[in-house]
Amino acid sequence: MPRNPKLEEFEIETKPTRSIRRGNVSNFFYDSNTGAFLGRTAESWGKIILFYIIFYAVLGALFMICMVTFKEQFINPRVPRLQQDRGLIGTSPGLGFRPLPPDVRSTLIWYKGTSYESYKYWEDELIEFLKVYKMKGQTAGAGQNIFNCGFRSPPPPGKVCDVDIRAWEPCIEENHFSFHKSSPCIFLKLNRIYGWRPEFYNDTANLPHDMPHHLQTHIRNLTQYNRDYANMVWVSCEGETPADKENIGVVRYLPYAGFPGYFYPYMNAEGYLSPLVAVHLVRPKTGRVINIECRAWARNIKYDRREKLGVVHFEVMIE
Ligand SMILES: *[C@@H]1O[C@H](CO)[C@@H](O)[C@H](O)[C@H]1NC(C)=O
Ligand SMILES: *[C@@H]1O[C@H](CO)[C@@H](O)[C@H](O)[C@H]1NC(C)=O
């Protein structure tokens, strides 16, 4: 049978040249015939290295863009994404009161002066609200952060100011927050806004006209010897109508008639506690509803009753 030259040719061509060298390890590392090193020529190696250099450069660039975009969140999870003007709450903090009535739509603090069953609800509410203030020393991470702040010694970064619950006396748990004596204590709190710095009314010669006179007098008295006390977010509570003004009686503010300036700005430090003002209604008239409005005073606190900015309203009724 004559040989098919085409087939022969084909066979020769397809004969794997590499099979001859199969098993020859040294040729794998360096092939003197082709100049290949580890199975690739210098040119091939050059291309592949160049490819990976570009590939990782692009990958690295993308990663850097991500890092820059989300820098704050990556580095400090305590910094909120929406800050100040960009936040929904805006720059003006609201004022809140405790204890809160059981019905969220109500703002009436009502009880019978002598009956424990009647004021127990309010007492429990306050105990619950003030729990964090009592617990601070025992809470891990919070206790060691506490700094003994003063008007001339604001806390160093990362530290938080102590809130001395003893300074609220007689508005303390052991004294039933004075509810049992028909002279209840209401606590006021300014909502936290990250990074917000109050602009104090600290020029006693130039207090705003609509600030109640008793507060103006109090500020002048308090700052007479130490001007540092003026750096406070002032607080005032008044009866709304002339009748309410009469019925509310003497109001005391503990420990100060305001939130000391060294508590601000709030930077979400571990263990931060909002300062509170205990408003002690020393001898309110019993047997009638007293409408009370409390205001917080700083140049950059908006006053808007409808939006509930810088002001809080509640009623007290002691039978
Ligand atoms: C008054 O308050 C402003 C901040 O609102 C502060 O910069 C200034 O130093 C304060 N003045 C005094 C006398 O403490
Ligand atoms: C301010 O001081 C005067 C006298 O020093 C005192 O009569 C007055 O009651 C004080 N007012 C307040 C609100 O503390």
UniProtKB/TrEMBL annotation:
GO molecular function, one term: ATPase activator activity
Membrane-related topology note: Single-pass type II membrane protein
Subcellular location as annotated: Cell membrane
Pfam family, one: Na_K-ATPase
GO CC term, one of those recorded: sodium:potassium-exchanging ATPase complex
GO biological process, any: potassium ion import across plasma membrane
Highest taxon, organism lineage: Eukaryota
Ranges that cross the membrane: 49-70
Keyword Magnesium set for record: no
Keyword line: Cell membrane, Disulfide bond, Glycoprotein, Ion transport, Membrane, Potassium, Potassium transport, Signal-anchor, Sodium, Sodium transport, Sodium/potassium transport, Transmembrane, Transmembrane helix, Transport
Signal peptide: none
Cited function: This is the non-catalytic component of the active enzyme, which catalyzes the hydrolysis of ATP coupled with the exchange of Na(+) and K(+) ions across the plasma membrane. The beta subunit regulates, through assembly of alpha/beta heterodimers, the number of sodium pumps transported to the plasma membrane.
UniProt similarity note: Belongs to the X(+)/potassium ATPases subunit beta family.
Identification of the protein by name: Sodium/potassium-transporting ATPase subunit beta-2
Species for this entry: Papilio xuthus (Asian swallowtail butterfly)
